[in-house]
Specification:
globular, nine-stranded mixed beta sheet, alpha+beta
C-alpha cells in the first residue's frame, strides 16, 4: 500500500508543566511545544517524519535537538487525550557541541552544524493508526551548543517552533467534507445614537463610536470589532485602530480569525466571519444574538455598551454538550503590531496546561496612549478566563475571553476602561511622562517570560534593567496588577533557568549581574523575604557564576571571546554586533553593581559568607577597573581591552554612563570623563537630546564589529551614525543622564532631560514593529529594526528625577547594606 505526504492544518501552542529542575532542585515551569495536526478527514497514518531545523538560534545556526515526544489523539467518549506513542529521540553530539570550540569562527561552527541539517529526518512509525488528528508534544530538548542568537534556553525551554517541520505520511480514507457557508447577520432594529462626548459614523458595514479618549467600531455583517483605540490623555489618538482588521496575507487565518468569537476543533475552524445570527443596535448598545456556527452544540450572545471612556461586554455561552476544542473563545481581541504596540500587562496563572492564561484584572497597555483596564464584574462564571498569546510571524497579540467546556449556560460581564500608569508622585507629571510612563508595559509577554523587547519579541535577559528602573517607581493602578508583580514574575523565571535572549552566560556576561540587579531593585522597593526564599537557589547559582568570571586582575574576563580586532565574533554584552570581548567595561560595571546587590540579598538570606565574598570582590573590582579600562589619552573609559592587550575606545557614551552612575570611578575622574564626552558631543553637533544620545562618538573600525559584513556595504561606505555604530538612542541614556546629574554636571543633565522629554512628547520613540524608531541616525532617520522597544522608555526614570517627580533611593543602585 503506497503512502504519501498528507495535507494538514496545524495549530501550535506552548504548554506549561511543573517539573523539578535537575540542578536547582526547585519546581520550575517546563515550557513545552504542542502541535496539532488536523487532517480534516479520516486518514490512515503510516509514520511521522521530523526533519532537523533551525528555530530561534543563530550565530551560529544551531539546529533544534528534540529529546522526547508524546503523541496523542482525543478520546471523545472519555473526554481525555489518549497517548498513542512516546518517543525518545537520539542525542546528537554535534548539535551538543562535539568538535566545536569558541575559538572557531562563526562560519566554521556553521559549517559543522550544517551537516546535521542534511541528515535524514527522525521517523516515528504509527502502524496504520486511523484518525483525523494528532496532538504531538515535545516536552524537552537535548543540550545544544551555545549561540549568540539563542531565544529559547536550556533543555526545559523547548523552542516554540521545534515541531514546525513535522510531516505525516499515510493514506486518506475519505474526501474532505464540503465547507459550510453561513450568511451574514440578519439585521434587527438598528437605531444607533452616540453617547454624550462621542460622535457616530454609520456605514452599511460598520458603526464607529469615537471620542477623544475612546473609539470602537462594530461590524453589522458579522460579530466583529473593526476598530478599537484609546488615548488616556484625550489628545485624539483613539482614532488609531490598534486591532487587526484584515485578511491580507492570510494573517488572520493563521491565528484563528479576527476580533470576535472563535472556535477551533480537530475538525474545523469557526472564525468570526463564519458565525451568523442577528444584530440589534439600540442607542449606544450593540447586540449580537443567536450566534451559531458549523458546530451544532454551541450558541453565543453578546451585548456591548459604549461609553466615552469604557466598553461593557456582556457575554453568554450555551453549550448543549461537553466537547473539546483546541481554542474556544467567546470573544477574542487581535492586536495589530504593525499599527502600534499593544501588550498584555497581566500576571500569568501558571496553571499546568496551555501557556498564556492570565489573572484578571489585567491591563492592555498601549505605547503612548495609556492602558485599557480589563476586569470582570458581578455575575461572571467561575470558569471564565483570559488567554493571551503572541504570534511573531503574524505580528499580532491575541487575548481571548473563554468559558469552560462543560455544558449549560455560562455568563460574564467584562469592562474595558481607559486608564493610565504613572510614577508614584503627588505632583502632576509632564505630558511626556504622562504619555509614556506606561508604554514600557506594552512590551510585556505573560506567556513568554515577562518583559520582552516588545509584545511579540523574545524575553531578553540582557535588557531586564530597562523595566527595573521604571517599575519600582510606578503607582499601582486601581484596576490591574501591581507593577512589581509583573517584574517579579520576569526575574523569578529568569533566575530559575528560564529561557530568553542572552541565555548563554559564557557569551553574554552582562546577563547574570543584570538579573541580580533586577532582584535587588525589587527587594529594595518592596522587601519580601518569602519571595527571596523562593528564588534563593537561582540567586546562589547566579552569584557563583558571576564570581567564577573574575580573573586574577580582579575584573570579569570573557574566556569565550577574545575581543581581538578581526575576530568577527558577536559581543560579550547586549550591543551584540560590536566586538566586545575579554575585558568588557560595560560588563564589569554591571558586575560591580550586581555584586553590591548580591551582598544585600545574600545577607538578608543569611548567606553571610558568600555576601562577604561579594563585598570584597566588588571592592577589588572597583580598584582594578580604572587601571585596565580607563584610557589615559582621553580621560574616559574605553569599551574593552582585548586578549592581545589593545584598548578599544570609540567614545562610548553608554559605557561611560553606567561606569560613572554606578560609582566605579572617583568623582574627579568621572567628571573629567563626562566633561570630555560632553565637549565631543557639542563638537559633533549631537548635543541635543531630542533624539537621545549617540552610542559612540567616534566611528568603529571595520575590523571591530559585524555591520560591514552583515550589511554587505561597499568597503569605502561608512556605517557610522547607523544602528549600533553611533546611532542616537534612548535605551542607555538613562545611565548617562544619571551620571551627569550625580557627577556635578547638573546643567547638562537638566538640558538633556528637557530635550528628551520633548522627544517623548512628540512620539519619537513609538512605532509599529519594524519601523526601526529605537535607533536614529544623526539626521533623524530610523535605523533600527524593532520599533516600540522596551529600552526606549527607561530614561523616563531619570527625566522624572530631573522634573522633581520622584526621588532616587539612597543608595540608588542597590539595597541598603550592599
Amino acid at each position: 500500500m503506497t503512502t504519501s505526504l498528507l495535507s494538514c492544518f496545524p495549530i501550535t501552542h506552548a504548554e506549561l508543566k511543573p517539573i523539578r529542575h535537575p540542578q536547582l532542585g526547585v519546581i520550575v515551569n517546563n515550557q513545552t511545544a504542542v502541535r496539532y495536526l488536523r487532517f480534516g478527514r479520516r486518514v490512515r497514518l503510516d509514520r511521522l517524519e521530523l526533519p532537523r531545523a533551525v528555530y530561534g538560534r543563530w550565530v551560529p545556526n544551531v539546529p533544534t535537538h528534540p529529546a522526547h515526544l508524546i503523541i496523542s489523539q482525543f478520546d471523545s467518549r472519555q473526554g481525555t487525550w489518549q497517548v498513542v506513542r512516546e518517543v525518545d529521540l537520539p542525542y546528537d553530539p554535534v548539535t551538543a557541541g562535539k568538535n566545536l570550540s569558541q575559538r572557531l569562527t562563526t562560519e566554521q561552527m556553521d559549517a559543522q552544524l550544517a551537516k546535521v541539517l542534511k541528515r535524514k529526518p527522525h521517523v516515528i512509525p504509527l502502524g496504520g493508526l486511523v484518525t483525523d488528528h494528532l496532538r504531538v508534544e515535545c516536552d524537552r530538548e537535548h543540550p545544544v551548543w551555545p549561540s549568540h542568537g539563542e531565544c529559547n534556553g536550556g533543555t526545559l525551554n523547548v523552542p516554540f517552533g521545534i515541531l514546525n517541520p513535522l510531516q505525516a505520511f499515510g493514506q486518506p480514507l475519505a474526501a474532505p467534507p464540503a465547507a459550510t457557508y453561513l450568511p451574514y447577520l440578519r439585521a434587527g432594529r438598528i437605531h444607533p445614537r452616540a453617547p454624550r462626548g462621542m460622535t457616530l459614523q454609520q456605514l452599511p458595514h460598520q458603526l464607529l463610536f469615537a471620542g477623544r479618549r475612546f473609539a470602537v467600531g462594530f461590524s453589522l455583517r458579522r460579530p466583529l470589532l473593526l476598530h478599537l483605540g484609546w488615548d488616556a490623555l484625550g489628545a485624539g489618538r483613539a482614532k488609531l485602530n490598534r486591532l487587526l482588521a484584515s485578511h491580507v496575507g492570510g494573517r488572520s487565518k493563521a491565528i484563528g480569525g479576527l476580533s470576535g468569537p472563535t472556535l477551533r476543533t480537530a475538525l474545523f475552524d469557526c472564525q468570526p466571519h463564519n458565525w451568523t445570527g442577528k444584530t440589534f443596535v439600540d442607542s449606544n448598545r450593540v447586540s449580537y444574538r443567536n450566534l451559531h456556527c458549523a458546530h451544532p452544540d454551541v450558541e453565543l450572545e453578546m451585548t456591548f455598551t459604549v461609553e466615552p471612556d469604557r466598553l461593557l461586554m456582556q457575554l453568554r455561552q450555551h453549550r448543549r454538550t461537553a466537547f473539546h476544542a483546541i481554542e474556544a473563545q467567546a470573544w477574542r481581541l487581535v492586536w495589530n503590531m504593525d499599527a502600534a504596540m499593544t501588550g498584555a500587562a497581566a500576571v500569568p496563572t501558571l496553571r499546568p496546561g496551555r501557556n498564556g492564561e492570565v489573572q484578571l484584572p489585567m491591563l492592555w497597555a498601549g505605547d503612548g496612549v495609556g492602558c485599557l483596564s480589563c476586569r470582570t464584574l458581578a455575575g461572571t462564571a467561575e470558569d471564565f478566563r483570559m488567554e493571551v498569546e503572541s504570534y511573531q510571524a503574524q505580528n499580532c497579540v491575541v487575548g481571548g475571553l473563554a468559558f469552560g467546556e462543560q455544558p449549560g449556560e455560562h455568563q460574564a460581564t467584562v469592562e474595558l476602561a481607559v486608564t493610565n500608569l504613572g510614577p508614584a508622585t503627588p505632583k502632576r507629571p509632564s505630558r511626556a511622562v504622562q504619555r509614556h510612563w506606561g508604554s514600557i508595559y506594552s512590551c510585556f509577554r505573560p506567556e513568554f517570560g515577562g518583559f520582552s523587547n516588545h509584545a511579540t519579541s523574545c524575553n531578553c535577559h540582557v535588557n531586564q534593567h530597562c523595566p527595573a528602573e521604571l517599575v519600582a517607581f510606578t503607582r499601582p493602578p486601581q484596576v490591574g496588577p501591581h507593577p512589581l508583580d509583573l517584574y517579579r514574575f520576569t526575574i523569578t523565571r529568569a533566575l530559575l533557568d528560564g529561557g530568553g535572549y542572552g541565555y548563554w552566560r559564557n557569551l553574554y556576561l552582562d546577563v547574570d549581574p543584570i538579573l541580580i540587579c533586577g532582584a535587588g531593585r525589587i527587594h529594595q522597593a518592596q522587601p519580601d523575604l518569602a519571595w527571596l526564599r523562593q528564588i534563593e537557589r537561582g540567586v546562589l547559582a547566579t552569584v557563583k557564576r558571576i564570581l567564577g568570571t573574575l580573573g586574577r586582575e580582579h575584573l570579569v574576563i570573557c574566556r569565550a571571546l577574545s575581543g581581538n580586532a578581526g575576530s568577527y565574533r558577536w559581543s560579550s554584552n547586549a550591543m551584540d554586533v560590536i566586538g566586545f570581548g575579554h575585558m568588557d567595561a560595560y560588563v564589569n560595571a554591571w558586575t560591580y553593581r550586581g555584586l553590591r546587590n548580591a551582598t544585600a540579598l545574600l545577607d538578608d538570606l543569611g548567606q553571610h559568607g558568600l555576601a562577604q565574598q561579594c563585598r570584597e570582590r566588588a571592592a577589588k573590582l572597583r580598584t582594578a577597573f580604572p587601571q585596565f579600562l580607563l584610557n589615559p589619552k582621553t580621560g574616559w573609559v574605553a569599551g574593552w581591552r582585548s586578549r592581545d592587550g589593545e584598548l578599544h575606545d570609540y567614545a562610548f557614551t553608554w559605557v561611560n554612563g553606567v561606569t560613572a552612575a554606578f560609582g566605579l570611578l572617583d568623582q574627579p575622574v568621572a567628571r573629567r570623563a563626562l566633561h570630555g564626552l560632553e565637549k565631543l558631543r557639542r563638537t559633533q553637533r549631537v548635543d541635543s537630546g531630542f533624539s537621545g544620545v549617540p552610542f559612540n562618538l567616534w566611528p568603529i573600525r571595520r575590523d571591530d564589529h559585524m555591520l560591514p559584513k552583515t550589511w554587505g556595504v561597499f568597503p569605502t561606505t561608512p556605517t557610522f551614525e547607523f544602528y549600533t555604530d553611533g546611532a542616537m538612542g534612548a535605551i542607555f541614556a538613562i545611565y548617562y543622564l544619571r551620571a551627569l546629574a550625580d557627577c556635578g554636571l547638573r546643567q547638562s543633565a537638566r538640558k538633556l532631560a528637557n530635550e528628551m522629554a520633548a522627544g517623548y512628547e512628540a512620539g519619537f520613540w513609538t512605532g509599529g514593529t519594524g519601523s526601526g524608531v529605537e535607533f536614529r541616525s544623526w539626521d533623524g532617520l530610523c535605523t533600527g529594526y524593532e520599533g516600540t522597544f522596551v529600552g526606549n522608555f527607561a530614561p523616563l526614570y531619570g527625566i522624572a528625577i530631573e522634573q522633581g517627580l520622584i526621588k532616587p533611593p539612597t543608595p540608588e543602585w542597590w539595597p541598603a547594606g550592599g
